[in-house]
Amino acid sequence: MNILNKYFSRQLVAIFVMLMLILTGLSWMMQIMSMMKFLLKYGVDVVSFLGLTALMIPFIASIIVPFVCFIAIIFVYNKMISDNEITVMAASGLSPRQIASPALRLSALLTILNLALNIWVVPASQSLFYDTQWDMQYGMAHMKLQEGAFTEISDGLVVYVEKVAGHDLSQVMLSDMRDENTTNTIFAEKGKLVTTMRGLSLVMTNGSLQTGGKQTTTGTFETFDMDLNVVDKDGSASFRVRRVPTMQLMQIAFDAQTKKQHKMILAELCNRFLSPIMNLILAALCATILLRSSLLRRRASFAPVVAVAAMAATMAAYMSLSNTIGSLTEFVLLAFGLIILLIIIMTALSKK
Q1: Between 20 and 30 A from 311 (CA), which of 139, 176, 187, 264?
Q2: How many beta carbons lie within 10 A of that of residue 258, not counting itself?
Q3: SS3 for 180?
Q4: Is the pLDDT of residue 232 over 50?
């Protein structure tokens, strides 16, 4: 039995790793294509850009693991059914549960790994991803000023700097024409780039300001703070539950500000705690359908199709329920429902 388990496990692991690398790589390439604007619009260097997109890999992996596990199991077991290896094993006295044990052990291991990904790795990587993305768009990484040259920061906002030393600037001229009705021209001896919650700001000292419009106004200042970008980094528009640490997410689930936000948090909690269980459910479902069809001598070609259809129906039902729950009671009921479904499938697999 140990020899058979190793034989099954080697093939399952080999197929799983190969499919995981291929599908993760394809998903990563699609992510790269969708974020090409960072290379074209913001002038981000290639290494930083690839590093940014690589932060999405843990999230991609957490989503596709159950599907890759299912595909690996259906590929290996269907091949062995076609080669009559499963029939020989059953004739030698092995039960469907024993034949399926390598697939169930692999899915149990992946459930633990997927749970760890969802609870710790994905929130940390997503937080770093959004912070890095924001900095590339609005922070210091976005700002590349050249000495003795006019730099257009955004439409209607131009800066001229005589000397740049890190974030410290000398002899600054700024022209702000973002408002069609009002234009601002600012001259300052010194300036300093600072990052605020609203984006990048330029703090200037010892200068003059000229405001044009229906009337022209001039004046001098000792200190003047100019917002170069107006972005609400932590506002509700940018609230992303994937970046929130799990313990903090569980705490704010009790005092969410809006009903929509509450449902969004509960859906994310389902994704983190309940989605990994789908590894076990899909693996057991696939093994049950394939092995039962084989042992009933109804193996032919319909069993993989039935398994895929059952997987699609199960995932569709789970995703629909997880995205519509509106209370912690419904969350608990969904968790119990998944456990009961797993027990039913395992019972069907264990029957002689």
Answers
A1: 264
A2: 9
A3: coil
A4: no
pLDDT value, residue 200: 76
Place of tokens 């005589």: 162
CA-to-CA distance for 262 and 275, rounded, in angstroms?
19
Both tokens assigned to 224:
């003047």
Q: What is the pLDDT of residue 214?
A: 74
Using alpha carbons, select from 240, 231, 200, 199 the residue that is nearest to residue 56: 240
Which tens digits make up the pLDDT trace of 289-309? 998 887 665 545 688 999 999
**pTM score, whole prediction:** 0.81
The 10s digit of each residue's pLDDT in 169-182 is 899 999 888 887 88
Residue 289, both tokens: 């359908």
Structure tokens at 303: 């069993």
Distance CA 207, CA 162 (A): 14
Q: How many residues make up the chain in this entry?
A: 352
Widest Cα–Cα separation across the chain: 97
Sheet with 149-154, edge to edge strand ranges:
149-154, 157-165, 168-179, 182-196, 199-212, 217-227
Q: Return the SS3 of 192.
A: strand
pLDDT at 111: 97
Kindly give the residue spans of alpha helices, DSSP state H, lying in the chain: 2-34, 37-40, 46-54, 57-82, 85-91, 96-116, 122-138, 246-252, 259-273, 277-295, 302-322, 328-350
> pLDDT band at 99, cuts 50/70/90?
very high
pLDDT, tens digit, for every residue of 263-272?
Answer: 889 999 999 9
Q: Which two tokens stand for residue 5?
A: 């388990």
Spacing of C-alpha 295 from chain mean position: 41
The rounded distance, in Å, linking the Cα atoms of 32 and 53 is 6
SS3 (DSSP) at 92: coil
Nearest one of 55, 28, 52 to 42, comparing CA atoms: 52
> Residue 280 pLDDT more than 80?
yes
| DSSP-derived 3-state class of residue 193 | strand
